[in-house]
Design brief:
By secondary structure, this protein is of the alpha+beta class. The chain has helices at residues 14-26, 54-62, 66-69, 105-119, 133-140, 155-169, 214-219, 285-296, 340-358, 362-389, 396-403, 409-419, 424-431, 439-448, 465-475, 482-486, and strands spanning 6-10, 33-38, 76-78, 80-84, 94-98, 150-152, 172-175, 178-183, 189-194, 199-201, 204-207, 224-226, 235-241, 252-257, 261-267, 272-278, 306-309, 313-315, 319-320, 323-325, 331-332. Helices cover 37% and strands 19% of the residues. Helix 1 (14-26) links the parallel strand 1 and strand 2. It is globular and about 75 Å long. The structure holds flavin-adenine dinucleotide.
C-alpha cells in the first residue's frame, strides 16, 4: 500500500489513544508519523469502564501484559453481565449473559436443549445462570482466569496508560484545541489550525473528538443515522460508590432494570462505578438521579453525580474523504452490553485492512463503511432485543419499549421463529456474522428473559437446574478468589 505519511488524530479519549496505539504499532516499520491533538479544555466522557473479551486481543496485539496495565487502571476481571429485574416471569427475574468458554460445552449443550424443550411447551429448566461456568464464578467471586473473560477498569486511568504507551511508541502528543479545520477544494481535510496558532498538516485525519464529531459531522457534514426509534435512552447519570470493606470483589457487571431504564454497577479494585441509563422522554434528570440514589442507598450519600447526554446511532459513512471517525464521533449504542471499545477496536482493525488492501480507493471505503455499519446494526439488534423481551409492567417506559415495532426485520424474524417453536438454529445461521452475537448469547437472552409459553408439560428427561448447579460448584473449586488473585496473593 501507499501508506499515509502523517496521520493526525483529534481527541485524547479512549478512542483516540486506542487508535493511536494500533496505527503506530501496525505501521511502525513504515515510518508513519502519528500526531494526537487533545484539548485541555474539553473533557473526555470519563465513563466506559466495562469491556467484552475482545479487549484481551487489543492488549495482546500491543504486547501489553495484564500485570502491567491492570493494576495501573484499577482493573478487575469480568466473567459475565447479570440482568436483575428485566423480566417478571417466575424463575427468570434475573439472568446472566456469560462469556462462554470451552468448559461450558457439556452443560451449555444441555442448556440449549432445555431452552428448546421449554419454548416448545415442556417444563425444562432453562435459566442460563444455572448452566454456565461464568455465572458460578460470579456467584462465588472467583477470578475467571482460564475462561474467556473480559475486564472492568477506570476509564481515566486506562486513557492515561494508553497515552503513555502510545508516546513510548513514538506518537506525538499535542495538548491544544482545534479551532478551525481547513479543507482542500475537493473536500479533503488539509490542516488543523490550533488555538495556539500552530497548524497541523496531515494526509489522513482520524476524528476521535467525541459525540460532536468535529471532523466527520461538523466539518464534512456526514449525516447521522439515529437509533432513537429503536433505543429510547438518551441520558445517563454516573455516581461512584466505595467498595465494601473486606468483601471479595465481584467479577460481573450488574445491569439492574429500574423504572425508566437500567443501572450499571461495575466493580473496580478501588470503587464501584455506577450509573443510570434512561430516556428523557419518560423521566426528568432530577427524578432519575433520585431514583439512582435510592437504588444505591447509603453508599451514594454525599457522592457527586455526573449527568451525561448520549447521541445514539451512527454516522452513515464512518470513512469519508481522507477522514475516518472512530469512537463516539462515529456512533454509540447505549452501554448495556459494554460494546463501545470493541467497536472502536474492530473499526480500527477494519480500517487498517481496508487501507492496506486498497489505499484510499472508493471501493475499499465503501466496503469498510458497509462492514462497520453492519457491526453497529448487529450490536443494536442485540441490545434492542433486551427491550423487546422485557416483561415489566410497572411503567410506560417498559410497556412502550415492549410494544415498539420499529425493529429490524432480522430481529423480528428471530422473535417470530423463537415464539413459534421453529428452527432457531437455522434462523441464526441464516443471518450469520451480521448478528455480531453468537448463538449462545441469543439463547441466553431469549431464555434468560423467560420467553416461553405459559402452559408447560412435565418433562422427566431434562437436566435440572439443581443438577447443573452441582456440576458448576465442582468446576469452580479450582478457581481462586478474585480479590486474592488481583492482590497477587
Ligand atoms: C454512560 C456511558 C457509559 C458507557 N459505558 C461503556 C462501557 O461500559 N463500555 C464501553 O466499551 N464503552 C462505554 N461507553 C462508551 C465509552 O465511554 C466511549 O466509547 C469511549 O470512552 C471513547 O470515547 P471517545 O474517546 O470517542 O470520546 P471522548 O472521551 O469524549 O473524548 C473526546 C476527546 O476529543 C477531544 N476534543 C474534542 N474537541 C476537540 C477540539 N476541538 N480540539 C482538540 N481536542 C478535542 C477532547 O479533549 C477529548 O480528549 C459508555 C458511554 C457512556 C456515555
Amino acid at each position: 500500500m501507499t501508506s499515509p505519511k502523517h496521520i493526525a488524530i483529534v481527541g485524547g479519549g479512549t478512542a483516540g489513544w486506542m487508535t493511536a496505539n494500533l496505527l503506530r504499532h501496525r505501521w511502525a516499520t513504515l515510518n508513519v508519523e502519528v500526531t494526537l491533538i487533545e484539548s485541555a479544555d474539553i473533557a473526555t466522557i470519563g465513563v466506559g469502564e466495562g469491556s467484552t473479551p475482545f479487549l484481551r486481543h487489543f492488549f495482546r496485539t500491543l504486547g501489553i501484559e495484564e500485570r502491567d496495565w491492570m493494576p495501573a487502571c484499577d482493573a478487575t476481571f469480568k466473567s459475565s453481565i447479570r440482568f436483575p429485574g428485566w423480566s417478571s416471569v417466575a424463575g427468570y427475574e434475573s439472568y446472566v449473559h456469560p462469556f462462554f468458554c470451552e468448559a461450558d460445552r457439556q452443560l451449555g449443550n444441555q442448556f440449549f436443549t432445555n431452552a428448546c424443550l421449554r419454548r416448545r411447551g415442556q417444563a425444562a429448566d432453562a435459566n442460563p445462570q444455572d448452566f454456565f461456568l461464568a455465572a458460578e464464578l460470579a456467584r462465588q467471586r472467583r477470578a475467571p482466569v482460564g475462561t474467556d473473560y473480559a475486564y472492568h477498569f477506570d476509564a481515566g486511568k486506562l486513557g492515561a496508560f494508553l497515552r503513555s504507551h502510545a508516546v513510548g511508541l513514538g506518537v506525538r502528543h499535542v495538548v491544544d484545541t482545534v479551532a478551525r479545520v481547513e479543507q482542500h477544494e475537493n473536500g479533503d481535510i488539509a490542516a488543523l489550525h490550533l488555538r495556539s496558532g500552530a497548524r497541523i498538516d496531515a494526509d489522513l485525519f482520524v476524528d476521535c473528538s467525541g459525540f460532536k464529531g468535529l471532523l466527520i459531522t461538523e466539518t464534512l457534514g456526514e449525516p447521522f443515522h439515529t437509533y432513537r426509534d429503536n433505543l429510547f435512552n438518551d441520558r445517563a447519570i454516573a455516581i461512584p460508590t466505595p467498595l465494601v470493606d473486606g468483601e471479595d470483589i465481584p467479577c460481573e457487571t450488574v445491569s439492574t432494570a429500574l423504572r425508566h431504564g437500567w443501572a450499571w454497577q461495575i466493580p473496580l479494585t478501588t470503587r464501584y462505578g455506577n450509573g443510570y441509563v434512561y430516556s428523557s422522554d419518560f423521566v426528568s434528570d432530577d427524578e432519575a438521579e433520585r431514583e439512582l440514589r435510592e437504588h444505591l442507598g447509603a453508599a451514594a450519600e454525599g457522592a457527586s453525580a455526573r449527568r451525561l447526554r448520549m447521541r445514539v446511532g451512527c454516522v452513515k459513512r464512518h470513512w469519508r474523504q481522507n477522514c475516518v471517525a472512530i469512537g463516539l464521533s462515529q456512533g454509540f449504542i447505549e452501554p448495556l452490553e459494554a460494546t463501545a471499545l470493541m467497536l472502536i477496536q474492530l473499526s480500527v482493525e477494519q480500517f487498517i485492512a481496508a487501507l492496506e488492501s486498497g489505499d484510499f480507493e472508493r471501493h475499499h471505503q465503501d466496503t469498510f463503511n458497509h462492514r462497520v455499519s453492519e457491526m453497529f446494526e448487529g450490536v443494536r439488534d442485540y441490545v434492542v432485543a433486551h427491550y423487546q423481551l422485557n416483561t415489566r409492567r410497572d411503567t410506560d417506559y417498559w410497556r412502550t419499549n415492549r410494544a415498539n415495532r420499529n425493529i429490524s426485520a432480522r430481529l423480528a424474524s428471530l422473535l417470530d421463529i423463537w415464539d413459534r417453536g421453529g428452527d432457531f438454529e437455522v434462523e441464526l445461521e441464516r443471518h450469520g456474522a451480521g448478528l455480531m452475537y453468537l448463538r449462545p448469547s441469543w439463547y441466553c437472552l431469549f431464555a434468560g428473559m423467560g420467553r416461553f409459553p405459559a402452559e408447560l408439560r412435565a418433562t422427566p428427561q431434562a437436566v435440572t437446574a439443581a443438577v447443573a448447579r452441582q456440576s458448576l460448584a465442582r468446576m469452580v473449586r479450582e478457581f481462586r478468589s478474585h480479590r486474592r488473585y488481583l492482590a497477587g496473593e
